[in-house]
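ping. complex inputs:
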Amino acid sequence: MGDQQVFRASTTAPVNIAVIKYWGKRDPKLNLPTNSSLSVTLAQSDLRTHTTASCSSSFSSPDSLILNGSPQDVSGARTQACFRELRQLRKQMEESDSKLPKLSQMPLRVVSENNFPTAAGLASSAAGFAALVRVIADLYQLSSTPTELSRIARQGSGSACRSLFGGYVAWEKGTEVDGSDSVAVEVAPVSHWPEMRALILVVSAEKKGVSSTSGMQATVATSTLFTERAERTVPKRMEEMKKAILDRDFDTFGKVTMRDSNSFHATCLDTDPPIFYMNDVSQAAVRMVEEINEAAGRVIAAYTFDAGPNAVIYYLAENEHAVVGLFKNVLGSKDGWAGSRGSAVKSNSEAKFNAKTAATLSEGVSRVILTAVGEGPISVDDHLIDADGNIIER
Amino acid sequence: MGDQQVFRASTTAPVNIAVIKYWGKRDPKLNLPTNSSLSVTLAQSDLRTHTTASCSSSFSSPDSLILNGSPQDVSGARTQACFRELRQLRKQMEESDSKLPKLSQMPLRVVSENNFPTAAGLASSAAGFAALVRVIADLYQLSSTPTELSRIARQGSGSACRSLFGGYVAWEKGTEVDGSDSVAVEVAPVSHWPEMRALILVVSAEKKGVSSTSGMQATVATSTLFTERAERTVPKRMEEMKKAILDRDFDTFGKVTMRDSNSFHATCLDTDPPIFYMNDVSQAAVRMVEEINEAAGRVIAAYTFDAGPNAVIYYLAENEHAVVGLFKNVLGSKDGWAGSRGSAVKSNSEAKFNAKTAATLSEGVSRVILTAVGEGPISVDDHLIDADGNIIER
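pong. complex structure:
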């Protein structure tokens, strides 16, 4: 023990799906966005990254990271920025209290696992960097708040900053050149509006052609419509969305969610060359949600699409049968209904829908994920690295 | 004869496909647009409307119009506006010269035929209203210029005003409340740049869900990005496009054509509810054009999409093998290659292309049309109504 001691901490961190989209950086190095964004954090029982960070003077340099069993390159600027900033905070603590072990000088060994199929095309980098930053902060016993840590996680992956909170989370773009005020803040905790649910339709697709990082920079550089979105459309929607959440007003929440998703994809299409993330299956999901809302006579379901064809459909628990029941009727044979959430839903076979839309969905959706609004990162005792610093094989 | 005489005139009129898109009306009744637009008139040997107008005091009221063998409703405000304005111009002539027969007081009998499949989803209303206005002007022996007639045709169908000219045609939005300066003008005649060709990929699709008329009004009412397009993006592109045409600069012509098509569809997607005209097949056509241009190392092909999934691909005659040859390699089994233009093209089997893109195209394209820049309306002696006023059965 002593100098050879292995220090460990473990956490799980959630995925978040934005309802006001982040698209465009004003500073690519610091991941400073051109507009604020707002997301719902999703339950970790369904989608989460589990990460253990350890350090020991017995570890050989350099720092290492293993994700889903595969060693990752940590030399990239983004991961290095996270390691450097967290070490710096630890170093300050160590300098003010000489009794503290010098963890900041020890190599880091980090192991991370996702509980969802990476092939699903779900943005896992948000959960990944949120877990990485949270777990190293825990390992270093930093007193930083989630908002303070969000400034660091943002440099790993922009949207990761929002995964440091549960519930409803805003990432305020900030105005400072150094990004010090570009941080995530809680709009409302899960408990404020716990009835929010999400149905994810995973669309079978090739690997996406354009990564978000290069795609959003192309949009900023070439779209003539983008500035209008970033400077006027989104600021207005951020206020509408915050109010809708505080008022638990699903009608406004849903309308703004759908319009902002479409606005984001419109700027992608206005990029040169154009970026298409939505395909015929995505369009069918839009149509199905429109049919559900038309039948209900109000907005009870709201679609949103990230940088890929998958649909995320938000709804309230009370409307589960009308929303998810219809999708179960059409997609009941797909993977994903076996869990407790999915098996609780009765197929809604009375609802009317367009047969062509249903056929396109059925052909193109490979699996469904049923989830809900959920908590932020959770510290756990279930370590992926043993007390001797060895990776635990599972 | 005498009062029983049947007066006749016949014309053919072309289709035009915009390279700067018309989308949005500032006055729906007068069809006054929110932005100027610019189009290429296509050859009538491939796509045209053939119309005969006749009038006689022996005809019974009201006016009648038969299109492709089916009687049409002419009581709509748009057709009525065209009839009324043309009659008014004739009436002025009759009042200043009492020897002229009183054609303005006689019922009109109009017969019209398209030489292209209406099921193809090609905007036929432009050719249709251009032919209607041109042929009645001929019947009435009006001295009005094409630009003066374009003010009338515009009230029938906005884009029809551009089909009164051949070659390269601008529709200047105008600023007058009465629409008197919202007219079409020639940018350059066919002879200025006769090498322009167009390949149309007709995509098998359901009937389009949203008509242009209601679609564009929804965009004006709900898209937050639309104003930027109409007020700043398009005016700049109109100047770039006119210069490109005058300079015979295909690189700029192609780039601006593609960007403006994407900008238009972006505002459709930003509409609430979103309007999708492009589908997976359209996206594959985009990708194929991108591959062609990449292989060439410059822009030799330019796609554009109207309010539907069909692709129109402009190119210069000198690049026919590189552009059309590749499509023939992929789509050689489809209808449309038998004509003189199509059979002259050798399939380009050496060119590389993405197999998935090609499969999507092959699955979704039902026929091709090969055409070129062409002349404006042509007066013809081939009448669809005989000297006694009877419709000639064919």
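The CA atoms of residues 195 and 317 of chain A lie 5 Å apart.
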